[in-house]
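Entry type: protein chain
Record version: 2
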Amino acid sequence: MPIGLVIADPNCSSVLGHYFEYDAAVGNAARAAGRRAVVLARRDVDPEIARQAGAVPTFRQDIWVGAGGGGARARLQANFAFLADLLRGIRRLRLAPDAVVFVHTFVQTQILALALLPLLFVFRPRVRFVYLLRYQPDFYRGPLSRLSLRLLERLAAWRGIRLTSDSERLASELEELTTLPVEVQPIPHTPPPRRDAPAGRDARCHFVSLGNARDEKGMFEILLAIRMLAREGGLADCRFTLQCNDAQPDVAAAIAAFAADLPENCTLLYEKLSSEQYYDILWDSDVVLLPYWRSIYASRTSGVFMESLSAGRPVIATRDTWMADELRHYGAGVLCDDRDPAALCAAMRAAIAGRAALARQAEAGRAAWLAVHNGAALVADLFAQDRRAPALPVERAAVVYPFADLAEGHSGASRRCSLLLDYLAPSCKAVHASQGGSHPVERRGNITIEGLGQPSRASRLLRGVLHVVWKATPQSWRRHEWLVWEYLRLRLDGPMRRRLRRVIARSDVVFLEYPFWAPVVAPLAHRLGRKVILSTYDVLAEQVTGAGLLRRLAWGMEVRALRRADHVVTVSPVDQALLAAHGIAAVLSPNPTDARLFGLDALPQPRAVVTELYDVTLPGDDFVLFVGSRHEPNLIAVERLRDLAAELARLPGQRRIGVVVAGRCAEPACEGNFLALGRVDDELLLALYGAARVVVIPLPFGTGSSLKTVEAMAAGVTVLGTAVAFRGLAITDGIDAIVEDAPDRFAARLAGLLADADRARKIAVAGREFATAYDYRHCYAPYRELAKLAPVAAVPSEAALEPVLIGLAHRAMRRGQADLANSLLAGIADRDVAASILALPVPIAGMSAAPAMPGKDVLWQSFHAREYGRVIQVAEALLADRRRDGELHFMLAQSLHNSGGDTARVHAEYVAAARDGFDLFWVRVGLARLETELGHQRRAAWHNLRAFAVRPWGRAGRDVLGAALRSVLRAVRADIRAVFLAAGRAAVARTAVAPIGRAAPDAARVEVPPPARAVPIAPTPRLWGMFHAGQFVDVVSLAPDGPLTGEFHFLLAQSLHNGGLDRQAALRHYAAAMAAGYDRYWTLAGRARLRRELGQRWPAARDYLLAALARPWSREAPCLLRQAGSVLFQRRWPVPPSAEWLAARERLWAMFNAGDMRGVVALAQTLPPDACPNGELDFVLAQSLHNAAIDLPGALRHYDRALARGCTRRWAWAERARLRRDLGQRWPAARDFVLATLARPWSREAPRLLRQAASVLLRPIWLLLRNRSPAVTDRSLGP
């Protein structure tokens, strides 16, 4: 009988393990369906497997050989070895014409072989290939994997190739790697045979943990939870059986410590279990413990979990994982927080209390689980022809936006596009938005926003050429350069086109915003069979004024682009009629408004939100508002508003009226009663709408319709504007809004409107009623019809505002505004959420969140203050909703690294930061530091070289290059030492051989073991993390007895020195580190600093000189030489610093680096004036007074005192020059800039300081010659 199913599993070698169970389940199900199945297993396969599962010895190695290291060559060799073994195994088989080759366990060391395999079956077109991706996307990344997936995408067009997964979560993550769909398959689990409970079974609740003892399986948390339960006296009602085989070293140490004080009702199993033993324990259990780490098992499946549900056993699992998702449908269990022993202990208590109910629920869900997940269901899926389940009309939508502000939403176009994403999300399985520029991956539910990357070098070069050529055009052409470039940009950027093609290939329909990229996007989409729906916000050619030829060229490009789309959507009836006159049928979808604006009445105290949470001082008793992007009509409107503010200031009356401008149309500024805020976030914008009395929109011209007008009317604010502001809107003047085309009459109209509150209120109510028709849930109905989207229910406006209220309440709690947070949460329906927010701890005094990025600035401040525990807690909470944010991953990696966290997790967080778009330079530097601490010098050198390749210029580039060279030298020294040690051992072995003719008989020969020699102890990465966290006392207390390595002596010396614990002992440890051969540079530099503090001038100077000679090429060598000179030749050697200064110094600098300037001033004022005789205290105090603009004359006095006391002249002169420039003292500022340059003329800052000196002196002359005002700002070319 021909073979119908080939199962390739290089990991299958023993009957003990889930690989055998999986293969046996699939093979038995295939044979039951009338198809012969064969398992290609490892060559050392157990004969029992060959008998039970029909296994054939095939593969020389498992999938992990070459996956963990060895570089690209090792992975390539592993792929070809796997392909050779697989072909050798298949060629010995007689395959059926419609056979299926099923590979369910592979990583990047097999993926290329699997991509090449279909090419070798070119004469067997009916043979199909099913590849199950079992692991996280990181296991399939890299150049080799990308090449393999691209090859599979091409082959899938004419061969039967499927990519599958057994987890819905994992499938959605893996689809980011390829344009092929990743289907979800059943799990082929064979239910264990039912067994009755043995007679006389122990009545206590039996908790079991099955599988290998690994940290990611929660073994640490289980042991700690049992200890906590024992302390509470809760072990009397339960017993534990823990499988502890194949434990990692740190896990094994924890198990050994637990076994030393083992409770009597705990059983530890150190050997692998046979299937019979395994199921004996499973059937005897009451609850199965599965507190797996979410970082590993968020999307992955678990064999123990499947077997538990198949046996009808309740489980304790981690929240927000695949296991938690499955428990909602099948089985029963208790969920606990990730990596939290206390939460696990509470879950155990809950399981004991609800034991009977959980058992009944688990038994009821067993049948439903087995009906879905079984071998027969998987075999039916493997051989099914029509595999895809019935889907929505559109499953995946791609939105292409040409500008770089979609994620921020600071312009009308970006807000309209953001609302389109919100409209599409409920109807689609996934919505992927691509914006111009570089932006890390951001997830909001099923919405993914990602940048297309920076322009290529060729594109940047051509952009520069166009800019130079455009300079030769008439003046009327120059301001429209951006328009021409947007049409050309994508045509000239090959990498961006390729990235965009991948996005389109993964979608079912493409929504294109603006016609710029239609000549490229539309052909790409049509070749892939995708529909293109193009939205045009304005007739762009209408914006070209004063250049007739350019206007006609722009109109021609725009019409040709619009004709390439399948459907065109316009926002204005006028634009719709204009396009219809040129043969382009357009559908009308007016500019919508956010549903949150209709519920803005639920926002309490909007003025307090603006002033208290965002530190904005609003001008006047009442204010009028304007919101706009950096678009030419908006820029003109801002100039009109400046004049309006001046007129309002001259009006008689007691109540002052201010003008507030939000958005990129004006740079941040405050001039009398005129306030420009620049970019603001959504929450602040909503609060401004709620606090404003009137919205003024004095637009001079424009096309399309104005989104800001509809937004203001929806917010329930009276709107006063020109007729252009209401273009495309059928409003009634004096009823829905007020129309005024004469800018000089705006002040009088505003004064009358503010004086008549009843009339203003009636107009605001009518305006909101008018704007109801412009709710995006109604305006975007044409998109649903054009794209054939599935209908969904609308969300109420009050519910739409709840996330805003929750975000503002979080911000209020972070700033210590508990009363304001309480009022914001009064309207929240979910009181549990409100209570959890009000229970948040108040942060460190002085910390505040900037409007641009709420939360991250507080995290960075906590990080610089070395509050790593808090950073870890908050970052994990932000990442818990599967958010992709490289900056958060980097902060988490750095905090874990500095606090001595698990090195594997630190490495994983660094990799995640690089994956999600964080700066590769700093990620590589962090990885290099981690590898250096682990002793992997070659890997450290490789990461440093890659960091140098990312940023080869400047001091940072020189630093990482030097670090790479030092790592190489350390590796070479270690190799040479190893060679000499090996040669020495060989010589000793030769001398130990008995002389010829004197050999003793075997019976009398006695081998004398060499004397045991104690191995020096090296510091662990955790100790280094404690050192970097400033826990010097803990480092010293954890020092072991016995011989230490030079590195450990250096660590102890630094801890004793920096902590001020015992300086004489620190000197001894420095000397021991030198004697043990530790790095002379660091040891000598540290000892020199210590000797200088002890007043030992000549020994300190000698150590400084020796340290400089140990590494003369480094950038620190000149600094060390200067330190030696300052020790020897300083005329006023300062008295030793006071104990108060030594105790407060580190905290003072931490507060300064965290931006808490007022805290620095408050702490410095508690110290005696002469606490720091070298001027450092005066310098940091001057910096704080200067940067926070607290007392500029006082800052100048402290700079003078710092210089008089011998503070570093280069920094003091440079900062004093900056202060004097701010005070308008031109000549003294220029002199200080020059002196700072002369203090260090070789530094890279010297040219910049000279330029600043020249700028201070020559700027008034330059302004006079150019006839420009310093207040005029440059205008960008784009909208």
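Comment: Confidence is low (pLDDT under 50) at residues 386-392, 841-854, 992-1014, 1268-1279.
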